[in-house]
Amino acid sequence: MKNFMLECCVDSVESAVAAQKGGADRLELCSDLIIGGTTPGINLFLAVRQKVSIKIHVLIRPRFGDFCYTDEEFSIMKKDVEMFRRNGADGVVIGVLKRDGSLDVGRMKELVSAAGDMSITLHRAFDVCRDAFQTLEEAKALGIRTILTSGQKNNCLDGKDLIRQLVEKAGDEIDIMVGGGVRYTNIKELAKATNAKSFHMSGKVEVDSAMIYRNKDVNMGLPMLSEYTIFRTDEKEVAKVRDILCSYEP
């Protein structure tokens, strides 16, 4: 495949470096990837910027959960967009919905304005919006360059039919990026089924903690997650996807 985009979602310096070595074209930088990602700290961004040369888009999401934000949360989001712009981010990844499931166009305009000349991606808030095609047209009007979507399903393979329709409707005006379960085992099927040229993956694997002493009677967070398992992007997982895309012929 020619002119494809492979983006990796990462939440650590180690994962960012591995993604670049594996052949990622761009990073989506976040924190707390295990819960879908939240806004990263500025020092994480600066550390990653020192270590990689590929573009970095920063996720702006103040908390876990839905995408209908309070005034205080939205104020923080605007300030974060401005901060990352000042510090050299290449893009931001944003999404705000109204209570009725429609895109909050007014607030999105404010974030787009705050972003200046940075590239804008509408994240998977799109996947829980009420009307995918209306939101697509609104995103075009806002000047958004990319929509990240799993086709409004938990897994992008299940959403491949909607993704294909979105790719057709988007044309050359906006890029439809496939995310939510992209792996080397399904990338060829996804490319064929959707006609998309942009793909988003984490390539994460489980890494055992360096801790020797372990108190298994205490959970610091969600009880189903071990404090002694770390998720990191694996260079080889990214490279496998890139190699398949490079050799894929529609």
TrEMBL record:
SUPFAM superfamilies: CutC-like. It comes from the Bacteria. Pfam families: CutC. InterPro entries: CutC-like, CutC-like_dom_sf. It is found in: Cytoplasm. GO terms for cellular component: cytoplasm. The keyword Cytoplasm applies. GO terms for molecular function: copper ion binding. Belongs to the CutC family. This is PF03932 family protein CutC. The lineage of its organism: Bacteria, Bacillati, Bacillota, Clostridia, Eubacteriales. The gene is cutC.
